[in-house]
């Protein structure tokens, strides 16, 4: 199962995503966090 949360910056997507994943037993992929931590090489490679 995949669930995608979209919305404005600061709306709480990451927070809700973590809580929802915990409740449903899913893994969270936080693309914003991964970009900031350098997990994705560059913006051009994420397209």
Provide an overview of this structure.
With 47 residues, the protein is mainly alpha-helical. It has one domain (13-46). 38% of the residues lie in helices and 0% in strands. It contains 2 helices and no strands. The chain has helices at residues 13-24, 31-36.
Give the topology string: H per helix, E per strand: HH
Helix fraction by DSSP (H/I, runs of at least 4): 25-40%
- Count the strands? 0
CA-atom Rg in angstroms:
12 Å
Structure annotation, total helices: 2
Report the major sheet.
none
- Contiguous runs where pLDDT drops below 50 for at least 5 residues: none
β-sheet strand percentage: under 5%
**N/C terminus separation:** 22 Å
The shape, in one word, is: globular
Average pLDDT works out at: 82
What's the structural domain tally?
1
Structural class: mainly alpha
